[in-house]
Amino acid sequence: MNTLVTFTLLAACSNDGGETITSSKPTAQEVLKEEPNADIIQINGTIYKTNIKRVDDLKVTKDKEIAIIQKTSKKDIKDGTASKLPVKTKIFSTKEQNDVVIAEINGKIKKYIALAEG
User: Fold this and answer.
1) How many other CB atoms are found less than 10 A from the CB of residue 72?
2) Could you tell me the pTM of the whole model?
């Protein structure tokens, strides 16, 4: 009896409809549509976001310079563009985490985390 119930549950949960579900990194437009005031940057095709408490609390060390903000915009975001950071802001990798970067503005730092596939 238990075998029959298990088989029925597995069969009911299978996906034989040929439907494929894929996920991809969020785009800047998707992030800003959901949160219009988000502070984001794009580097090498990846969107990074700041003002996330768990990221702000991380102890990370600035490493190598990886980008300089070329443009501030909420409309046409591509690599080197930020929604809020000023042009010429330097972006650095961190020694501890490859998904966290640091923006340095007038000696102060802001930590940004890469937004993963969802």
Assistant:
1) 15
2) 0.78
**How many residues are given for the chain?**
118
Q: Tokens 């930020």 — which residue?
A: 82
What burial class does residue 41 get, using C-beta atoms within 10 Å of its C-beta: 0-12 exposed, 13-18 middle, 19+ buried?
buried
User: What is the DSSP code (8-state) at residue 5?
Assistant: H
CB atoms within 10 A of CB 70: 14
Over residues 26-69, the pLDDT tens digits come to: 999 999 999 999 999 999 999 999 999 999 999 999 999 999 99
In the DSSP assignment, the letter for residue 96 is S
Q: Bridge partners of 65?
A: 92
